[in-house]
Amino acid sequence: MSCRIVVLISGSGSNLQALIEQLDAPAEIVGVIANRPQAYGLQRAAAAGIANECLDHQGFSSRETFDQALMARIDSYRPDLVVLAGFMRILTPQLVRHYHGRMLNIHPSLLPKYKGLHTHQRALEAGDSEHGATIHFVTEELDGGPLVVQGRVTVQPGDTAETLAARVQGVEHRLYPLAVNWFVQGRLRLSATGATLDGELIAASGLRMEDHS
Ligand code: GAR
What we know:
The chain is α/β, with parallel strands linked by helices. It is built from 6 helices and 11 strands.
C-alpha cells in the first residue's frame, strides 16, 4: 500500500521539490499545505499535479485555533507521514502529539547545536569548522525530537551566511529524500526509546548521511 505523505511549507519549497523528484514507490505526496499565500512551493506542487492549499495563519486569533484548523486540513488527506519542509511555525503540543511517530522535520544545523533561527550565522560566529542539516522526529521540544540523520558541510574561509546556507541546502536535498524513503519502506520508525532504522536504535547523535549514500 502506498505511503500517503502531506508536506507543510512556508517558503520556496526546494526541499519539497527534492522529495517530488526523489521519493521511491510506494510513496505519494497527497497534499501540500502552506501557511503563507505567497509560498513558492505551492506553485511547485501545482506543477507536479499535487493537491495544494494555503491556510494563512494570519486569519486566526491564536496558535491553538490555527493548529486545530491545520490538523483538520492535514487529516483530510489521511496521511501516513507529515513532512515539515521549511514550515516556519512553532507547533502546539496537541498537534505534535496527534502526529507522534509520523512527523519529520528538517533543521539547518547539526542538532543539538543551534536550535531556532539564524543557524548559519551562528555557526560562523562560533567559528565552527563543520555545519549541516538534521532530520528528526518531531516531539514537543522545539527542534529537539530524536535525531535520524545528519548531512555535513565543511565551513570554508570566506563563507558568509548566504554561501553556507546554499551549501547546506544542497545537502538537504539529498538528506530529506533519504530519510523519507526509509520511512516509506518501513525501515525508519519512532520507538519508545528513540528512532530506529531496521529495528536498531539510532544513536542520540543521529546517523551520518555519508555512511548511507
Ligand atoms: C530549509 O533550509 C530548512 O532547513 C529550513 O528552512 C529551509 C526551507 O527551504 N527549516 C527551518 O529553518 C526549520 N526551523 P525550502 O523552502 O527551499 O525547502
